[in-house]
């Protein structure tokens, strides 16, 4: 199953980079769209493999659990990742604009932190739903204690998902505040605005000075 996860990850990048090469280097836009549309197929194949394996009576392992976590992460983070790689590829090979990041401490950065955390929550929910289905197919009762849950591959990964989500929240948006809206302006515009403000604040120079 670990090999299947690695193969799915490799297929994801092969389809993504292959599609971008066709689009920006070969100019084959129609072919690139077909290749990029195949990016989710690797995830679907991995899900099918896990489902068939468990349905046939295989005992869930940590590899099965991490496979569905991988699925949740790629579903939640796949689209922004594809957009980011596409923007970089377009800048590097097709003369597109340089990808920009929000200024540190700006409201845009705070929004980005929240968006990333909500994506993580979505990934955790998708993975948790798949893990609960696997637990139901296995037919085991609820573990009586946290220690017992930690020894079961699916319950242990569920606990790990909750921990990672909480830590990400505390390390990311929890204490980020609201951000400074003035920092949302491009650096050149901020410099111009400050220069104008300084000029308007200077007292007029009279003829006697």
Report what the structure shows:
The protein is built from eight helices and no strands. It has 209 residues and is mainly alpha-helical. The longest helix is centred in the middle third of the chain and has 33 residues, at 62-94. Residues 188-209 have low confidence and may be disordered.
Brief summary:
The protein has 209 residues and is mostly helical.
Number of strands: 0
Please give the largest β-sheet: none
> Helical proportion?
over 70%
The radius of gyration is 25 Å
Shape call: flat
The structure class reads mainly alpha
Set down the secondary structure blueprint.
Elements: H1 2-24, H2 29-37, H3 41-55, H4 62-94, H5 107-138, H6 146-151, H7 153-171, H8 187-201
Features:
209 residues; mainly alpha
